[in-house]
Specification:
With about 240 residues, this protein is of the alpha+beta class. The protein contains seven helices and 13 strands.
């Protein structure tokens, strides 16, 4: 049994406390429900479910503040499907396929075809991913992704190379190669793409990406299971039921 002190204002007793209503929190709640455990409480600091899946309205349109793509759909060889894709289909989340090969490149002079440099950047990225797997298997020290690229001979110098480098890495991971782990980045890539597929689908649903969590939560929660706009300051445990 857990006793939760919420912002120093009141004490709540529950058998299982789940802090946060992102994908991990909601998956935990669903697993409990599927196993016949209903005495759980989801404590969410925001006014809605979803964690990092959140959006705002701007100019009459939905603007995602968190994830925007579903990356990796289904492995046609094993039949395994990305659970996010499964939920997207279940709750009819509108999305469109993103064709990364349909690319036009520009610079200060307007349209300039340097797609060969972009392709080179992606080839070097793939080489680093393969090298990271070898380093992990051998127990070698991790490097920054930028160091991994350097070992593959990729050190962007020209404006076109820097744009290609941004497109191949920063755009995807929202950080620079020098600030990112070579092994961790590669593991993410292997999980999303090698495990399922290289397909990317962009979410265009006006309900927001968080619809996945909000709609799924309706199948195993009720008003008593969720506490919004609350944070936990202290947790106490007891063996008493």
């Amino acid at each position: 049994m857990s006793f939760l002190n919420l912002c120093g204002t009141r004490i709540i007793r529950t058998k299982v406390a789940i802090l946060g209503s992102g994908m991990a929190g909601m998956a935990a709640a669903r697993t409990l429900s599927e196993n016949g455990i209903s005495d759980f409480l989801i404590i969410e600091a925001q006014s809605t479910l979803g964690g990092r899946m959140k959006e705002i309205k701007f100019g009459g349109y939905t603007i995602e503040l968190g994830p925007s793509w579903i990356q990796g759909i289904r492995n046609n060889e094993t039949g395994e499907e990305n659970p996010i894709w499964t939920l997207a289909n279940k709750h009819k989340l509108m999305n469109i396929y993103t064709d990364y090969d349909d690319l036009l490149t520009f610079d200060q002079n307007g349209f300039t075809n340097y797609s060969n440099i972009v392709n080179q950047a992606f080839d070097k990225f793939d080489q680093v991913v393969d090298d990271a797997a070898k380093r992990l298997a051998l127990g070698l020290e991790d490097l920054s992704f930028a160091q991994g690229l350097s070992l593959q001979g990729w050190i962007p110098q020209t404006p076109h190379e820097k744009v290609a480098d941004w497109w191949a890495f920063d755009f995807e991971y929202a950080d620079t190669p020098s600030a990112s782990s070579m092994i961790e980045t590669s593991m993410h890539t292997k999980t999303s793409y090698a495990r399922w597929s290289e397909d990317n689908h962009f979410v265009i649903d006006e309900r927001g990406y968080g619809t996945l969590v909000r709609e799924e939560a309706k199948t195993f929660t009720n008003e008593k299971n969720i506490l919004y706009n609350s944070t936990v300051t202290k947790v106490k445990y007891s063996n008493r039921l």
